[in-house]
Design a protein that fits this description.
binds S-adenosyl-L-homocysteine, alpha/beta, two-stranded antiparallel ribbon
């Protein structure tokens, strides 16, 4: 991969609008080398709130570390992506608080602690020669925040959203951030994205009653899946599934509250 060329601008985020009966098709690969998200500035940025200061994110990262997040790469990535650029202007003051926030169409962006925790579980101490996880699939792009953080941790990210309005919102939020290794797809994430498989990791931001079989099918041996899922008690918990040569190994972790996983696009 080229590393010495300067990134060109504007970045091209790959998008698709498949019809309802078809799975997403292969996005075009962007040609630009990867750039730092910290260096990018979307066209519209809230002014005068002090949110542009890296100190605000540093405080959030400090809190995440106090809450038990230990993966240095996850902490660095969380400290790099400017969360306030993904949050609606009326809520922007709460961007770095440990709270979930509405992102429109009845959906929410998870609180930073949950994002960091899930990413740490996804990484699970695994890294390639470049210090990254390989190709990753995200189900539920939402506003694009977690996808942006993931793009710093994985070599390639495919992120699927079923709501056109949010897919467009993420595309607009991410446009100026120059993220060539992030591919946004409009489609039903319950069928995964076969063309990118096998994945070194799969992460879902919406919870269903059971794991869609496509997800475990599309997971590489040795890879992990992290998702919210309904428990027998009718609650929701984070689960981690590892695909081993001997089969799937599932762990049920702490209780969480995620929006429902739904099928089809809308
Ligand atoms: N990671 C997101 C959080 C999004 S909330 C962020 O950083 O903003 C979860 C998202 O999952 C919602 O936008 C919802 O529309 C989406 N979703 C639910 N079911 C889905 C499915 N089957 N395929 C793709 N996206 C889905």
């Amino acid at each position: 991969m080229a590393t010495t060329r300067r990134p060109s601008f504007p970045a091209r985020l790959d998008t698709l609008a498949p019809n309802k009966s078809q799975p997403p098709q292969a996005p075009r690969r962007a040609a630009q080398p990867q750039a730092s998200l910290a260096a990018a500035r979307p066209a519209v940025a809230p002014q005068g709130l002090g949110l542009d200061s890296s100190a605000v994110r540093a405080r959030m990262v400090q809190k995440l570390a106090q809450q038990g997040i230990t993966d240095a790469q996850v902490l660095t990535a969380m400290g790099t992506v400017e969360r306030h650029r993904f949050v609606d202007s009326a809520l922007v003051n709460q961007s770095y608080e440990d709270t979930s926030l509405p992102i429109g169409l009845g959906q929410t962006i998870s609180k930073p602690n949950v994002v960091a925790r899930m990413l740490e579980l996804l990484m699970g101490g695994r890294r390639d020669a470049q210090g990254k996880l390989g190709r990753v699939l995200e189900i539920g792009t939402g506003c694009g925040y977690q996808a942006a953080v993931l793009s710093l941790l994985a070599s390639e990210v495919y992120s699927i959203e079923r709501l056109r309005g949010l897919h467009e919102k993420a595309r607009s939020n991410l446009r100026a951030l120059r993220v060539p290794n992030l591919h946004l797809l409009l489609g039903d994430g319950m069928i995964g994205y076969e063309k990118g498989a096998p994945y070194a990791g799969i992460i879902a931001a919406a919870g269903g009653d059971a794991l869609p079989p496509a997800w475990t099918d599309q997971l590489a041996v040795g890879a992990r899946l992290v998702a919210p899922m309904a428990t027998a008690e009718g609650r929701q918990a984070l689960i981690v599934v590892e695909k081993t040569p001997q089969g799937l190994k599932q762990s049920v972790l702490e209780a969480v509250q995620f929006v429902p996983l739904k099928s089809g696009i809308a």
